[in-house]
Amino acid sequence: MTHRHRFRRGVAPRPSDKDLRLLGRLLKRAEKACRPDGAGVLPFVVAAEKAGKAVLPVGHTGADSVFVRLILIGKGFGGMSAEARAGREVEIGRLVGACRAVLAQGIREDIAG
Prior knowledge:
By secondary structure, the protein is mainly α. 62% of the residues lie in helices and 0% in strands. It has helices at 17-33, 41-51, 66-76, 82-112. The radius of gyration is 15 Å and the shape is elongated. The two termini are 29 Å apart.
């Protein structure tokens, strides 16, 4: 466990700019992976692997978090058959929308606070 993942003085770690870039890249590549041509599968898997090491927004680190679920789907996306990938497109789209809403909310809180 690195210093970035430890709680200090009761304050949860906040995602850095790099972490937010990794999460943004994950969301973009997830959208591209859902296209019918299937060309974005490998970049989505790589982005999911890297985003899995990032610090997630506060309150979204549990197993039921939209970020965690998207990362887990992305890590296994390369090994899925074409039919299984097609079955996950709707879920991935919904998770990407929810992740974008969380990130937008966090940005507004940082500006206000």
